[in-house]
Specification:
The complex is a heterotetramer, with 2 copies of chain A (323 residues) and 2 copies of chain B (348 residues). Chain A has 323 residues and is an alpha/beta fold. Chain A has helices at 6-20, 44-48, 60-72, 91-98, 101-105, 132-136, 149-161, 211-221, 241-251, 266-278, 300-306, 310-322, and strands spanning 2-5, 24-28, 53-55, 76-80, 112-117, 142-144, 166-171, 179-182, 195-198, 203-207, 228-232, 235-237, 254-261, 287-291. Helices cover 37% and strands 20% of the residues of chain A. The longest helix of chain A has 15 residues, at 6-20. Chain A is globular, with a radius of gyration of 19 Å. A 6-stranded parallel β-sheet of chain B has the order 1-7-8-4-3-2, with helices on both faces. In chain B, strands 5-6 form a two-stranded antiparallel sheet. Chain B has helices at residues 13-18, 23-48, 63-72, 86-92, 96-103, 137-150, 169-180, 228-243, 272-279, 283-295, 299-322, 331-334; strands at residues 5-6, 78-80, 157-162, 185-191, 194-195, 198-199, 219-224, 249-254. Helix content of chain B is 43%, strand content 10%. Chain B has 348 residues and is of the alpha/beta class. Classes of the chains: A alpha/beta (323), B alpha/beta (348). Chains in contact: A-B, A-C, A-D, B-C, B-D, C-D. Chains A and B meet through helix 3, helix 4 and helix 5 of A and helix 6 and helix 7 of B. The complex binds thiamine diphosphate (2 copies) and magnesium ion (2 copies). One thiamine diphosphate sits between chains D (84, 132-134, 162-165, 190, 192, 194-196, 257) and A (29, 58, 60, 82, 86, 89). One magnesium ion binds next to strand 5 of chain B.
């Protein structure tokens, strides 16, 4: 079992799968010679050649639509958006074609779109977004947001195996900051199964992606004072309602944390579901800690204000404890 | 300055022989033209009888373009036909009764009532079901061609779009990527001179859509979309060229949408003279005359074919009408594919 | 005060505003000679000419982006999507440019996009959608969903006056079915002010658009048995939290009803907010009645199953009553 | 077959006179070139000093293209310059210290720290702030031209895009609509031969981007983007043609991106020879030489200008550095515009 960065785990998993399965190919802007803006596919083109590691023109629609066509012809395309923000240029292909083709025509569309997402390094309004909530509303799409290197590997392989279109969000802020053990053998992690990141009895904290670490830090600060159960959803479409509801049944209090903006964000869906399914269990209203409803600001003080901070989570947890 | 080549009409039977069509094939083409129009005419009647929910579209005037191109495809080729391309489904072998079931939203329609109109396809026939958003299927066709290229298969993808849809970004991104990678794809523009009520001079400012091919590094051809043999010849050329690694071709089939945009539209905005002029060039009439003049097409043969087709349609409508409307069952589950569904030959 | 259809109210309001304000122009596919797919701009081109009623090429991106540029130059563009479904082709222009320009650069983008939306007539997956929830998550956009002819007029004029990008959803099923009195004089209805469609004491029902009539029918059926307060939000971005919370304080029970699909739909945001702000007022979990998570099916029995029906609302209200 | 016209270089002072530039103007152009590069060079240093958060982009090699086009604009014209077009902001009169404040994310940057890099513009200078998504500002430029056309104003909009962004649908929809409506817009393609690491042959399959103009019914011109006077002349022609109702023009300015895509990129994928070859055609050197050969440009003048610019930059950086980082205040309110903000001349 080797220790790898989050980025390395993704890169190695993808390379191994391409060695194992000839149907898998990579396409995106600068993924070949350059190895991708974040070097996830570094040296892939040397190994797999220009037709399995394809440097595409600046054409998100043709990239995603092209993957859809290739997938229908039996390939397993893995597209890379240079930044998750640019997926907005392929919105129509995803929601109109890929997401609806199976319900309408019974045609599976096994594509994966890799989306380097998230803020924390002054990327500004167009290189820092977490657009997962917008897609979580679209029936037909699946969405993964791994937080750990091991999950990054297992979820990527599940995404490639999955017969449906999968949006795979990889958080840029975790790429090189997070190192952890990754099993060497091939394994998949099923979609819709959350990971209990930390066990606890007093409050349930539901989150995913980079916020898992913010949550963890907050829980550590409250150790002794408050016992926090952190649930890392890992995938938000589908998402693991059962695990969340079981935890809430135990703790009677919950906080939802996400880096995306608040209004009509996916946190609202989790809260709505907890209310529907666990109202009687609740000793306090479920709390939200999220980014405010603005674009992601560029200047460090503004971005810090925008991104949920450990203090914000600690404060939210304390409020709940005292409720 | 026109850039695209203007395809000449097909004159003699000799030419069609060279193009690989024997007399049987020619009669088959005729039958497919008749059947294509028949399905749409009957559909129109069914709509008026209140048996078809929603709206209804026909490809009247476009039959030759659709049949001509589809006839030039090989079984292993794939395509993304649109709402004027019933002829493609017919040539590829869709069962008419399933088509009617589709129109009527019955369980035996290829989408089992989940979608309507020609928003369907039988993927076992190498066709991919269209979406309404135009021309969102072009990138998909290009992707199919990309798969063929990656696997070094000698297969070709055909992508259809209307001259109106040529204005959308999808058209551009698709052709640009196909041109850059010289993919085995043929783009077919059904230029029926109207996008709903919008005339061509408000859709594009170049002479022909085919002229745009050069902007993507491949050839463009304008062909008379009412001449099924000329369409066939040009499509054959382009498809085989693509198969041999010659890259994409853009074929513009010029015709006129002979009815309104859909059943509700009386096309008041189309000049009468335009309809009259193009009525003289009815694709079916043209080909029938051609067959008489060049292939001693007899009244008996013609009668036989129209009888066959009529019976086929009557039976099809009867059978389709026996198909029940769908009950909601497993609708939510049907949104996502299951792993088992990938256990198909081309997903292995 | 004249009685008008919902469609006529929109058409007349737009025409009057174009007469009053030279900066207002209309652009869309087939809006000129044809008068729009639903004839909302019938005869407009004769009166205002081809440069204020512009038949655009089939180019949603250029239409919406073009409106943005024209608005920045001082015009008041009103774009028409032929069907709301096709706005997916302008997603990027709306969320990337129009929605963020003011926060980033301080540039107001006063555009209106008219969106004929909704199902009920076998339009199928691409001519029946209610995509408002996807946009409600995007800071910078405003969203109106009028239910009555009078609101349709007042909200359209507010939308045109508004210095921000506004998505104006007009429900196709109301176009000719709904007739009501519309004041003759010019008036605006402020965004973020709900309309109490029907007063009641037992349950609060929050909805908008065509579902207002479904709610009304359900409330009628329960008359005597249960007193339902129906709140027509009229705009969902911004939305009238105060009115909803006041009502819930009174009724202690709430049902959220929308025609859009459920998961991460805007209903979830309303439920999350009620939980956050009125938890103590609640005698029961807030209920959701929405479309299921599928594309909009074509065949009448399937579409009927998909669209929230009066029975569904009645059942939901009864559950709440009995809770 | 090349379709676009290839613009010839500017030879004599006589020509520039005809183009409406007196010696003062020429020195002004020179100064703007120096200032443009100066701002970006200093920015780069500030970045290395850790004073600029995020990333940093320069337009080295593109200065003449940007300055040449902007110089041809009239005050009432508007534009949507991109990340290689600092020269446009300079010519339109942005205060350098505000630019540095922008880079450093300070409150006195035009976006007060809400956005970074050249993602800014001063609309009082007739510029519209770019977004990252390329080329999403082209439809916006076309919309500005549409407003001018609707109001019958003799104003022109200029839309910039890179040769890589030419592949996106926005480029196509914008040019198609502009061509159909013959709008007063000029499209400027900064062809610096690379899209990040992607070479032109993987971006498009036609000879030149300018060749595509004919697909939209207007003229295309390829001009040497390192020849500021040739760029100016072509831009002037196109802009005045548009102003007089002659419709759009697509001008492709050919140059080389002389640095990496951004500060983090060492451009290992660009052949050394390519850099060497184009280094010989440095836009500033070229114009300096031209001024010496054709306008008796003296050492004194040159020294004076570079002194001025150096001082300007020093003061600017000092002033910018005094500007505080923004505190979050009214961020949420700032998302939406207030009615009062429309009380501006052009919104009346
Ligand atoms: C993206 C998109 N916008 C709008 C529509 C509505 N619409 C349906 S058909 C049509 C006209 C299409 O014209 P053309 O491409 O020439 O095809 P034709 O119907 O003439 O065969 C329009 C505008 C659509 N289907 N897709
Ligand atoms: C829609 C979109 N996709 C991807 C990117 C990421 N990106 C930023 S610059 C760039 C290359 C652009 O090349 P070109 O248009 O030639 O402009 P240049 O940077 O060379 O001036 C890419 C891919 C983007 N900005 N927008
Ligand atoms: Mg057409
Ligand atoms: Mg470039």
């Amino acid at each position: 079992m080797a220790v790898k960065t989050y980025l390395q785990a993704i890169s190695d998993a993808l390379r191994d799968e391409m060695r194992r399965d000839k149907r898998v190919f990579v396409i995106g802007e600068d993924v070949g010679v350059y190895g991708g803006a974040f070097k996830v596919t570094k040296d892939f083109q040397q190994e797999f050649g220009p037709w399995r590691v394809i440097d595409a023109p600046l054409s998100e629609t043709a990239i995603v639509g092209g993957c859809t066509g290739a997938a229908i012809m039996g390939m397993r395309p893995v597209a890379e958006m240079q930044f998750a923000d640019f997926i907005s240029c392929a919105w129509d292909q995803l929601v109109t074609v890929a997401a609806k083709q199976h319900y309408r025509a019974g045609t599976p569309v096994p594509i994966v779109v890799r989306l380097p997402s998230g803020g924390g390094f002054s990327g500004g309004p167009f290189h820092s977004q977490n657009p997962e909530s917008s897609f979580a509303h679209i029936p037909g799409l699946k969405i993964a947001c791994p937080a750990t290197p091991a999950d990054a590997k297992g979820l990527l392989l599940s995404a490639i195996e999955d017969p449906n279109p999968v949006l795979y969000f990889e958080h840029k802020h975790l790429y090189r900051r997070i190192k952890d053990e990754v099993p060497d053998e091939r394994y998949t992690i099923p979609f819709g199964e959350a990971r209990i990141h930390r066990e606890g009895d007093d409050v349930t904290l539901v989150t995913w992606g980079a916020m898992v670490y913010t949550a963890d830090e907050a829980a550590k600060q409250l150790e002794g004072e408050l016992s926090v159960e952190i649930i890392d959803l890992r995938t938000i479409a589908p998402w693991d309602r059962e695990t969340v509801l079981e935890s809430v049944a135990k703790t009677s209090k919950a906080l939802v944390l996400h880096e995306d903006t608040q209004t009509a964000g996916f946190g609202a869906e989790i809260m709505a579901t907890i209310m529907e399914e666990a109202f009687e269990d609740l000793d306090a209203p479920v709390k939200r800690v999220t980014a405010p409803d603005t674009p992601v600001p560029f200047a460090p003080p503004l971005e810090k204000w925008f991104l949920p901070q450990v203090e914000d989570v600690v404060a939210g947890l304390k409020d709940l404890a005292e409720y | 300055m026109a850039i695209a080549r203007e395809a000449e009409p097909v004159s003699s039977i000799k030419e069609t022989k060279e193009a690989g069509l024997d007399r049987e094939d020619l009669l088959g083409i005729y039958r497919n033209l008749i059947l294509t129009r028949g399905i749409e005419e009957r559909g129109h009647i069914l709509y008026k009888q209140g048996k078809i929910p929603g709206s209804f579209y026909t490809g009247r005037g476009n039959e030759a373009a659709a049949v001509g191109v589809a006839t030039a495809m090989r079984p292993e080729d794939v395509g993304t036909p649109l709402h004027r391309d019933m002829g493609v489904h017919v040539v590829r072998g869709v069962e008419p009764w399933r088509m009617f079931a589709q129109f009527m939203g019955r369980v035996d329609g290829p989408t089992r009532g989940r979608d309507g109109n020609v928003h369907m396809a039988d993927d076992r026939l190498g066709l991919i079901a269209m979406v309404s958003h135009l021309p969102a299927m072009l990138p998909v066709a290009v992707g199919a061609a990309l798969a063929f290229r990656i696997r070094d298969e000698k297969r070709v993808a055909i992508g259809w779009f209307g001259e109106g849809a040529s204005a959308r970004g999808d058209t551009h991104e698709s052709m640009n990527m196909a041109g850059v990678r010289r993919l085995p794809v043929v783009f077919i523009c059904d230029n029926n001179q109207w996008a709903y009520s919008t005339p061509t001079h408000l859709e594009f400012a170049c002479e022909t859509i085919a002229d745009r091919a050069q902007a993507y590094g491949f050839d463009g051809v304008v062909v008379d979309g009412t001449d099924v043999l000329a369409v066939y010849r040009e499509a054959k050329r382009a498809i085989e060229k693509a198969r041999e690694g010659g890259g994409p071709t853009l074929i513009e089939c010029l015709t006129l949408r002979m009815e309104g945009h859909a059943v509700h539209d009386d096309a008041f905005y189309v000049p009468k003279e335009m309809f009259e002029e193009w009525a003289k060039r009815d694709p079916l009439e043209r080909f029938r005359t051609w067959l008489r003049d060049n292939a001693d097409f007899t009244d008996e043969e013609e009668g036989e074919i129209s009888e066959q087709v009529k019976k086929l349609l009557n039976d099809a409508i009867r059978k389709a009408d026996e198909s029940p409307l769908p009950e909601p069952e497993g609708e939510v589950d049907a949104v996502y594919a299951t792993p088992e569904e990938l256990e198909t030959p081309h997903h292995k």
